Amino acid sequence: LRSFEFIPHTAEAGIRVQADTLEELYRGALEGMAEWLKPGLPRTADKRERMAADSAFQNTLLVDFLIDVLTRSQVGRSVFFDLEMHHLGEERLECTLLGRAVDGFDDDIKAITYHGAGIRQREGCYETEVIFDI
Amino acid sequence: MIPKNALHPISPVLWQIPKNYRDGMRVPARVYASETLLDQIVSDRSLDQLINVSTLPGIVSYALAMPDVHEGYGFPVGGVAAFDAGDGIISPGGIGYDINCGVRLLRSDAQLDDIRSRLDKLGSALYREVPSGVGRGGRLKLAGKELDEVLEGGAARVVEMSFGEPDDLDSAESGGRLSNAGASLVSKDAKDRGYDQLGTMGSGNHFVEVDVVERVFDEGEAERLKLHEGQITVLIHTGSRGLGHQVATDYIRVMMKAMKRYGIEIPDPQLACAPFNSEEGQKYFQAMSAAANFAWGNRQMITWEVGKAWSEVLGEEAGKLSVVYDVAHNIAKIEEYPVAKASRRTVVHRKGATRAFPGQPVIIPGSMGTASYVLVGNEDSMRQSFGSTCHGAGRRMSRSLAKKRVQGSELKRRLNEQGISVNAGSMAGLAEEAPEAYKDVDEVVDTVQDAGIARKVARLRPVAVIKG
Question: Which residues fall within 8 angstroms of residue B278, CB to CB, at 6 or more apart?
Answer without folding.
Answer: B258, B262
